[in-house]
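Predict the 3D structure for this chain.
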Amino acid sequence: MGLWQRIKRVFRASTGAALDKIENPELVLQQTIRDMRDRVPELNNSVAQVMATERLLLKQKENLSAQVVELDSKIKAAVKMGRDDIATAYIGQLQQAQVDLDRTSVQAEHAGVASQQALKARDNYVLNMKKRTAEAMQLISAAKQAKLQEQLAQTMDSFNIGDDSSTFNEMREKIDRRVAAAEAKLQLGSSTVDSQMQDIEREAMDIQLQDKLLEYKQQMGMLGAGTPPASKQIESGTPAASEAEVLNNVIVNETESGRSN
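Done. Predicted structure below.
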């Protein structure tokens, strides 16, 4: 194979591949349908011309037939009048009219056949066009479905690649960090001095309630005479607690709570 033939083959292959990529089957089918429909008026015009020729020949045949009848009558009239010269002239015209009539009859017959064939061809083309149009519409629908499936496949491929999955994982990790930080702040806030002081106040309230309970039991004779309330026992055994000692107790409790956490 020569160099030029190889170059031509490569060029045709490259051109064909490029056309395959840019060729849209849906657009090609739609254009094909339009082309088929555009040919219908042309076919109608062609059929109309054939039918017009047939009608013209039939009209000529009718005129020639009338002319033959008229010439025959004139010949007979001339013979009766003894005008053989005129009768001979009419006979010549009659013979020519008869030849024209025979020729026109044959042409009209052929034109009639041509008209029937043209009408049949036009009808077959219209039927074929409708059939091809229906097939083209089905193919266009299939092409659209294939395009949607390709887009869906590309979307699924993107999920398989992991682009969106990595994004979801990254956002989930950020949210988990924020939740953990919020829980830590909440836990830290619950171990403040105010919280410890609230615990001390609740404990002091419990002590007062226990003292009241012991007083009631002592008044009812349910306890020994020498048993003082719990708060009195604390006052008799230890000096009165000052504000500095209360604050030290709060700090110690806060420290122990922080170590336990």
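The radius of gyration is 59 Å.
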